[in-house]
User: Fold this.
Amino acid sequence: MIKFVDPQVGKEEKEALNAVIDSKYLAEGPVARDFEKRFCEFVGSKYTVVTSNGTTALHLALEASGIKPGDEVITTPFTFIASSNSILFNGAIPIFADIDPETYNIDPEKVEEKITKKTKAILPVHIFGNPCDMKALKDIATDHDLLILEDACQSHGSYFDGKHTGTIGEVGCFSFYASKNLPFGEGGAIVTDNEELKDEILCLRNHGRTPKGGYFHTKIGYNYRTTNIHAAIGVEQMKKLPAMLEARKRNAYILLKELSDLDGFAMQKIYDKAQHGWYIAAGRTDKKELPVTKVIEELKANNIGSRQIYNVPSYKQPAYTDINNYYYWSEFIKFPDYSKVSCPVAERVGKDHFQIPINPGVSEEDMQHIVATLRKIFS
Ligand SMILES: Cc1ncc(COP(=O)(O)O)c(C=O)c1O
Assistant:
């Protein structure tokens, strides 16, 4: 089976893990600091703070940015649930704006329609590694005095107008979950150029302790730290990242080139100023007689791993449609009746697309097999 997730870990990661064990420094320490320095250099940010995962990175970034209970934050419903859950953790209200039918990213025009007096921030997600239209979103944010908090959890190696995703808004959050372009197993990071914000994040991440350490707590914070064990995998993956991104790009471009004329098949559109990081290559069936379930079945029958992702938009998840009946914040905050929300494009795209393997473990020969199989399925 050609896998759609295949972390490129081996000898180097084993040696790095052994070195951490030999050092007996298991908690977060010098290895994590080394990773942060490398990640700053890679994305071009002043500061990187590692976290236990991407969800905790988002939670911290929102809280440290001053998002308060009752504030509205506009985001996409076509994403992993963590994007909007992190808004809810602060008692803030996720407001869903529909996506663009070709890029699958939040549609700036729809964002503008959702702005109210309570709107404090936009939380764009660069879905599958495809950068959002950050110029349009920044213009809206400037006009309405809103923050941009980027969910870059899927977009390592993605750029808009020459800037790495996550460094365009006030703050950006990354995930290093096992499937990601840069995996730790579990892990995350926040990047920013704002020193004050970085200090607030450091404090909240470590139980509200002052940076000097000791048992002195100025805030109610969390334990969202990582470990040297996870960071050791991260450092080795960081060294391999340029080559891994190149392999993803090579594989994705084989699909773009070889399947551009295939009737009823489409891939995610990329804005002119954007560079896709190719976390996920998403194919779409535009043929009514060829439902996505059939495409996936045929791919699997030909030893090609595939799946649907986000076929249920966040607002349609039972956790959201029932939110005013059970979530503790609902005792203080009235959330929208999410069962009445409608983002027709997100609902349609969620039903029509499927994942195609392009990870660095997939060879050019595998890609030719994938191309030939898709041609057979769609013709
Ligand atoms: C878009 C998006 N946001 C947030 C997250 C949360 O990251 P993590 O799984 O590391 O908590 C993910 C991870 O899958 C993601 O894909």
